[in-house]
Amino acid sequence: MHIKLKNNWFLISLFTLFLISISNNFYQIKLFDKYEGSKKAPNKHLMITGDIGDFWNEANQIDKEIQEGKNYFETGGEYRRPYLPSRTFYLFSSFFEKNLITDSGKVFIGTEKVLILIFQSLFYYSMLFVLYRSILKKIPRLNSQIIILFLACEPTIFQYHSSFWSESIFFSLQLIILIFIFKNHYSISNLLLFGLILGIFYLQRSVSIFYILIVFTYFIIFIREKILRNLFLIFTGFMIVLAFIGFHNYKRAGIFYVTSTQAKDGFYVYLAPEILAKKYNINSKLALKNLQTKKVSWINENKLNIDKEIDRLRIYNYQQKVAFKTILDNPLISFKVIANKTLHFFVIDPVTHVYYFHRWNTDNGDFYKSEIQKKWISSRIIYSIFIYLFCFMGVLNIYKKKEYKHLLIYLSLSIVYFTGIQSWYGGTRYFAPILIYLAFLFSFGVTFLIKNYKIN
After folding, report:
1. Stretch among 37-41, 166-170, 359-363, 374-378 having the lowest mean pLDDT
2. How far apart are CA 49 and CA 165, in angstroms?
3. Does the pLDDT value for residue 407 go beyond 80?
4. What is the C-alpha to C-alpha distance for residues 450 and 397, in angstroms, rounded to an integer?
5. How many Å apart are CA 89 and CA 197, to the nearest integer?
6. Which residues, 6+ apart, have CB-to-CB distance to 231 below 8 Å?
């Protein structure tokens, strides 16, 4: 098969998509860097909302505390959410000497915010170019070009470069990890750096804390030479990052811990109530209320003070134990609930970000229960089937070729990891990282079709 996109045209296409992303950065800021004029949420900034608002406020708190003379390790609050996003916003605030929150307590309005989005786009597309150079050594040029162009323009991924959510930088870190995976040789410094990157990966999104096990599995199967040295060095780099987090928490609150407290809430808040609701034939809100009532009783019995971080950590541990017990005590119901959420998880969603987080007016109710959301379901299913069909053909294509066995196993492990650790929530936003790995399968599916139907 001699089909390939000439390298100059490929690079021009990639650069054009980068420029389109930059243009979208400015477009989003121009249209949505403002407060929503709604009755239900008159003080809601259209772009800095939800978890982003919490990151933004923490960044502003860190900035203030440092200006007051505090040591960095004494700044910030409870390690509730991923560590890195708020620090990224703080660096922006510090570098440009810009207060993130005005004296009236609102997010500042100004085009300077576009610089954060430009950084995200530049970081991502730069890593795409580096990844292209890396995979060319092991994957045919046409496949490599399809992979990179897919990652450069796929709308589910593309939209996040023009938002303040944590996804864009997370995607870029995924690309860096792939660049390391495609290396032929690993020096001591490479392996230590790899471990540090895996640690930073966790700092950007807490769900990736165990992803190092996927890397270890890959190394044990395919990189057997000096395996103990390799694993030790990667683990050392990773532990340096965790030690940094633990030290920060210790200096700030007198408690050494390395996992975000939000990570212990998920099953308790989003999964356990639905399991109990089905078990007792009640609605999930009532089930959650019952759980909360029992929690309050437990807090009172143990004389805990929710204003103390050390006591809040005990409460989070309690919630985690209750959630796990609920799941294990009701295996059949748990399986049905998780299976239903997983099916929803796999319906790719390239549109919600724009409608829900930027354009959606809360006076019209919840986007996820709206008529607009329902209208998109059919289109999303068709789009998902299109992607999965090519990925399926890609698996068939790769499976027959021994030289790609290591790639197929790594991609499969990564897809299984992010499915297993996030699909129970059911939110389609959390599916997006899987598209990074599907891009490889998609490319082999396209070339499989070209080869078998002799498309010239």
Report:
1. 37-41
2. 10
3. yes
4. 12
5. 20
6. 216, 219, 220
Nearest Cα to Cα of residue 23 among 161, 171, 156, 170: 161
DSSP 3-state assignment of 103?
coil
Question: Per the structure block, which two tokens stand in for 145?
Answer: 């070009």
Q: Going by C-beta distance under 8 Å and a sequence separation of 6 or more, which residues neighbour residue 304?
A: 311, 314, 315
Query: Which amino acid belongs to residue 401?
Result: K
**How confident is the model over 182-201, as a mean pLDDT?**
95
Name the nearest CA neighbour of 88 among 65, 128, 117.
Answer: 117
Which helix or strand (DSSP H or E) is residue 125 part of? helix 114-135
Give the three-class secondary structure for 101: strand
Phi, psi of 35 (to 5 degrees): -95, 145
Helix (H, G, I), strand (E, B) or coil at 261: helix
Rounded to 10°, the helix 272-280/331-345 angle is: 120
pLDDT of 188: 95
- Cβ atoms 422, 207 nearer than 8 A: yes
Extract the tokens encoding 61.
């708190």
Alpha-carbon distance of 407 to 440, in angstroms, equals: 9
Whose CA is closest to 311, among 321, 323, 303? 303
pLDDT at 1 over 50: no
Name which of 184, 273, 177, 198 is nearest 242 in CA terms. Answer: 198
Q: Which residues contact 290 (CB under 8 A, 6 or more apart)?
A: 276
Q: What is the pTM assigned to this prediction?
A: 0.94
DSSP assignments along 340-354, one per residue: HHHHHHTS--SSHII
Amino acid 272: pLDDT: 96
Who contacts 292 (Cβ-Cβ below 8 Å, separation ≥6)? none
Cβ-proximal residues to 240 (8 Å cutoff; 6+ apart), any chain = 195, 196, 199
Cβ neighbors of 139 (< 8 A, separation 6 or more) are: 147, 404, 407
Nearest to 263 by CA among 331, 333, 310, 205: 205
Q: Which long-range contacts (CB under 8 A, 24 or more apart) does 1-7 make?
A: 1/142, 1/447, 1/450, 1/451, 3/142, 3/450, 3/455, 3/456, 4/140, 4/141, 4/142, 4/145, 5/142, 5/145, 7/141
Better-predicted residue by pLDDT, 354 or 57: 57
